[in-house]
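Deliverable D4.2, example record:
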Amino acid sequence: MALEYGREGETPAGFEIYRSPNRRRTSKLISLGFGAVFVAVVGFAGYAYYATDSLIQNVEEGNSLATFSAYILALKGPPPEARRALLSGLDSSSPALRGACARACGKYQEPSMVPLLGELAVVDSVPTVRIAALDGLARNGSKVGVSRYLLQVLQEEEEQEVLSAACETTASLNVDLQRIFPALLDLLQDHRARVSGSALRALKTMSGVDWGSDVVQWNSWFQQEYGPR
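Output generated by the structure prediction step:
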């Protein structure tokens, strides 16, 4: 049976769908509002990304935009002129700023950054900052002297998130396995799944073999490769 249409604005069954003019205006206003916010955010982000001098000044002053500015500098790849401000930020009283500066300093990829970031990874009182320092070491990429700091974290750290980050950094840098192996093997036996899983991934990545959680097999393999521990 053919459907019959009535007046304009009616459905085939003859029921009119009412659309409030106020509702349409409200929808347009909401869309315009979101559009304005989006443009403002993009504009501010663009300004922040390219206003290097302002970013450096914020970090130097330690003001309310300092942490944001340090993250932007890390994202851009910090220029040489930002070095002094970022190094100063490693000693800031703000954990967020210390962490942001640690990640940014890692982007310099210089051996001189290893002791600064390594010490922060060992002694800082805030776990998230220690994690940021470990991430900075991984970004830095230098192996010169890094094993001593990673070994100290792996042996002495208690927070599982920090231990997991230390395992990831160890594997990323592919440090001397012979030196780091005992610490990773101890963590492989940790009762916390996150820690033991991170240690296993590091062992597999660095050794090229996979003995799972079998400590006996790992020890046997190590003795064949490097001799008795």
